[in-house]
Amino acid sequence: MMSKVDFFLSVQDEKEVVEAILLAEKDTSGEIRVHIEKETSIAPFERAIEVFYELRMNETKASNGVLIYVATKDQKLAICGDKGINDVVPIDFWESTKSIVIEHFKRNEFKSGLVEGILKAGQELKKYFPYQNDDIDELSNEISKG
Hints:
Blueprint: H1 4-8, H2 11-25, E1 31-37, H3 44-54, E2 65-71, E3 76-81, H4 83-86, H5 95-106, H6 110-128, E4 144-145
Parallel strand pairs: 1-2, 1-4
Antiparallel strand pairs: 2-3
Helix pairs in contact: 2-6, 5-6
């Protein structure tokens, strides 16, 4: 039986989301990941932090990983960044990115929401963490699922 998570994005949608991550990471040393699960029993931001550590996103050299977390059944979204980002960006840094994603989600445009959010996150990261010639892709670009 397929879970609600499997229906959230088609295989093609997932490919396009991963391509958006690759595109967004071209201009920044930041690392972006997407995690999708059905529901969370705790506040979405708290769960996003847990997943962030489970995925070992805190191990990047510049502490500049970003996680876009989605709980499909609960219709919850959270974006969290690592210490390196949080130390240099304004407190409401992710609100504009979150707003873009939510606007698409309200129209059931889940892939578009993630793609636009990822590209926006990449643009925002570029200001603080521009791409360096010696950058390596430190984290998987694949969507993780709970």
